[in-house]
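Moderator note: this is an archived Q&A kept for reference. The question asked for a predicted structure of one protein chain; the sequence and the answer are reproduced below.
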Amino acid sequence: MASADPQALRAEELRQLLNRAAHAYYVLDTPVMEDAVYDRLYRELHDLEGQRPDLRSADSPTQRVGGPPADGFVAVQHRLPLLSLDNAFSTEELDQWFGRLQRLLDRQHLALVTELKIDGNALALSYEHGVLVRAATRGDGERGEDITANVRTIAAVPLRLQLPDPPAWLEVRGEALMRDDTFAAINAEREQRGEAPFANPRNACA
């Protein structure tokens, strides 16, 4: 009897762990794994599949972005895929990314601006002739949830763009976030009502 393939077994284990964590995070809004742990396991699976492409399967977390649309919202198709950013865990990986960027743009000298990453909820705001007509979540990158009514309550989101000659269609992509003090106040209210507190601001925002 042939011995089991240890790499195949590990890949399957990683897929199950990551898929359960993604479902809990994106669909149930109940995280079961620290972000750093998820990133480490994801990288392990990514590297393993890179070494052994035959282990890559259709249900691998490396083959999709985000999670499926949650129940209770209408699913909508993104006009252009709403993808996620790649991670870099070392200076070497950052150098490799910069090299790819230089080759893509065919430029040796590039000025870069960096800022702290805000861990919010990705939104795609669609404007027709300057008027907000749809707001959608990332979802799986191809389809998201229509949350236009919710986003209209956010004062920072303009219902009409202040442009003299707006284009026929424009999509603005960014992050919806919640301040720490707002998060603390919401959790205090929930606890007073006997409800379970949210795990973190991102999930409270979702």
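Archived answer notes: The two ends are 50 Å apart (CA to CA).
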